[in-house]
UniProtKB/TrEMBL annotation:
Residues 1-22 form the signal peptide. InterPro entries: Ice-binding_C (IPR013424), WD40/YVTN_repeat-like_dom_sf (IPR015943). Keywords: Signal. Gene3D superfamilies: YVTN repeat-like/Quinoprotein amine dehydrogenase. This is PEP-CTERM sorting domain-containing protein. It comes from Vibrio alfacsensis. The keyword Hydrolase does not apply. Residues 226-248 form the Ice-binding protein C-terminal domain.
Amino acid sequence: MRSNKFLMLATIGIFTSFSANATFIGDSAGGLWDYDTGTNSSTFIGNSGTMFDIALDPISSALYGVSGNGNLYEINQADASTTLVGDTNRFINGLTFGSDGTLYGSGGGNLFSINTSNAATSVIGSGSYSSSGDIAFDDMGNLFLSSTTGPNNSLWLIDEMTGSGTEIGDIGFDDVYGLNYTDGTLYGFTEGAETISIDTNTGVGTFVSNNQIRAFGADGAGGVDIPEPSSLALLGLGVLGLGAWRRKRQ
């Protein structure tokens, strides 16, 4: 009985501490930040060295970053220290994970798949976009990319199977180097330290706040298919309750 109570409390504690608005942002000086889009508050984690983008694995919860010379790193979320995974041998300035744990990268007009065990990278395909600095999935599995094409950065819808892209529209902001979909909204983060919301139907960006972080990349768990924390906690309690009921019946 004592062990059951401990597991129940641990389940509640783990999942109620999670913020649905949490986003990691890597800045132009190499700093890693934990940022909350809902409150516009941030916590400095440490310096990882400058990463051209970062991505959070929805399955392992590991954080990865890619440097300007194409090296892939795993980043410690407690202190921003890094472990080299390998060399992608590509120019990549956008990273994101699919809900199945596939790591995608973008650079120039190319979309890549990247092996997180050794950084081996394959070209999926290409399009007429030019990656500005990030890609992100929404909760329906649509892949979006910020591109340098157009008078400002523009938003593109990317086919993750072929790498082809369709332009949605002009964002109205430049240097949109970070994207993250969370709480039903696609957010953009600029090197000018702006947080913007982006309409995925028109591509138009709307200023939200000045976050004081000169973004070079961003990612979080919002755009992948992960149950809400409350649902996970209830599921854990349900499993524990079922186990207790079975033991009582025996």
